[in-house]
Amino acid sequence: MASATSVTSLVDEVNCPICQGTLREPVTIDCGHNFCRGCLNHYLEIPIPDSEEPPTCPLCKEPFRLGNFRPNWQLASVVENIERLRLVATPGSEEEDVCQEHGEKIYFFCEDDEMQLCVVCREAQEHRAHTIRFLEDAAAPYREQIQRCLENLRKERDEIQGVQSRENQRIQILLTQVATKRQKVISEFAHLSRFLEGQQGILLAQLEKLDGDILKQRDEFGVLVSEEICRFSALITELEEKNKRSARELLTDIRSTLIRCETRRCRKPEAVSSELGQRIRDFPQQAHPLQREMKMFLEKLSFELDYNPAYVSLDPQTSHPKLLLSEDHHRARFSYKWQNSPDNSQRFDRVTCVLAHSGFTEGRHTWVVNIDLPRGGSCTLGVASEAIKRKGEVRLRPDEGVWAVRLACGFVSALDAFPTRLTLEEQPQQVRVSLDYELGWVTFVNAATQEPIYTFTASFTQKVFPFFGLWGRGSSFSLNS
């Protein structure tokens, strides 16, 4: 067995003059010196002052021709044998890949058979006409292909991860919407239950009163009838006794007796007064509030389950300087004092308006606005196109990209092509604004009574935002979060 010292001496003999390491893929140039293929390629990449002169040997400085260096298979075999000896002589060294058939280190790759070869395999008859390359040279184009595949796979993986992220976010939104709808169903049915209990108490109390009034009139009727029967019974008894007497006694005061009997008229009292009878007949009308409430309940429940509650917050970048926004951006108040707001292209500078932070390009959405208006104040609610004019005067009407209603003390107007004053049962304090982007509906409803206010029909092509405007000292609104 070779000693470690002799192996080290052999290794020194096959070192590369450039890297001072054991030759890897040795090649020989014109002067006969051997170098690692990689080291020589790197050496040739160094710029030469006079590019017309041929490169020189790194060791002896003799010129050699580019492309005239050739693989030194014999030296490669020697290097392989030395490496094997070193592995044997050095305890604990890891054995490199070797040919299973010949026990030689694998240096080459046959591109025709796609086989890894040692020096002995390369010289075999079946590979002499094949394209044989060093392992690294053969692996280079495959590394490039692998790199391209990796880039494509990573890109597709990133796209899938993006889809996963978007869909997970969408699922979370849907779960949140379902939870909101569940809470809405519980809340609405609890409200209905309380209302039904109250209505039941009212109707039962009214029926109890009717029952008492009927019994009272029954007792009064009984007393009256008994009195009449007693009076008539007394007259009948008197006449029967008169008729049994003698002619002289019969004729005594006969005219007065007959007059009393003939002029006596029977009073025919009613057991139930006409007024009480009318109350009984009108009792079904007492259920009309219940019918209206049930109708409103079903309409409201159906509406709120169909539309998604929108989380609306005000965008301070669009707010007119006379609007004071709360820290949570859910409330706004009008002030004649201008705020120190930096000017930007998004901010309204003439109309005292503000947009919501987020807009919509699809779907059905609803939000509720609480309004507090002093005398002389007004509030404008609706939606506005993303392209709404921000500077100068803005006409708040559909052809300018605004679909809104204006509420003031005592009246409500729809800001259509021509403002239309609306007739409502009561002045809304809470307004529900609903948007159906695909159908192009913007609907306003009194959130407290469910009374319809107005509906715009549009054809949306851009993103639309919840829109709000205020005027008048002390005027304010807040958003239900």
Q: What's the assembly state of these chains?
A: single chain
Q: Please count the helical segments.
A: 9
How much of the polypeptide forms β-strand, as a percent range? 15-25%
Domains counted in the coordinates: how many? 3
Please write the string of helix (H) and strand (E) elements: HEEHEHEEHEHHHHHEEEEEEEEEEEEEE
From the alpha carbons, calculate the radius of gyration and give it in angstroms: 53 Å
Helix content: 25-40%
- Average pLDDT taken over every residue: 83
Number of strands: 20
**What is the CATH third-level topology name of the largest domain?**
Jelly Rolls
Coiled coil: 143-170
Domain B box-type: 94-135
Family: Belongs to the TRIM/RBCC family.
Keywords: Coiled coil, Cytoplasm, Metal-binding, Zinc, Zinc-finger
Describe the structure.
This protein has 481 residues and is of the alpha+beta class. The protein folds into three domains: 4-138, Herpes Virus-1; 182-306; 308-479, Jelly Rolls, CATH 2.60.120.920. 40% of the residues lie in helices and 20% in strands. It contains nine helices and 20 strands. Strands 7, 8, 9, 11, 16, 17, 18 and 20 form an eight-stranded mixed beta sheet that branches. A hairpin with a 4-residue loop joins strand 4 and strand 5 (115-118). Helix 5 runs antiparallel to helix 9 (288-306). The longest helix has 110 residues, at 135-244. It is elongated. The two termini are 87 Å apart.
List keywords for this structure.
40% helix, 481 residues, 3 domains, disordered N terminus, 9 helices, zinc, alpha+beta, 8-stranded mixed β-sheet, Jelly Rolls, elongated, Herpes Virus-1, 20% strand
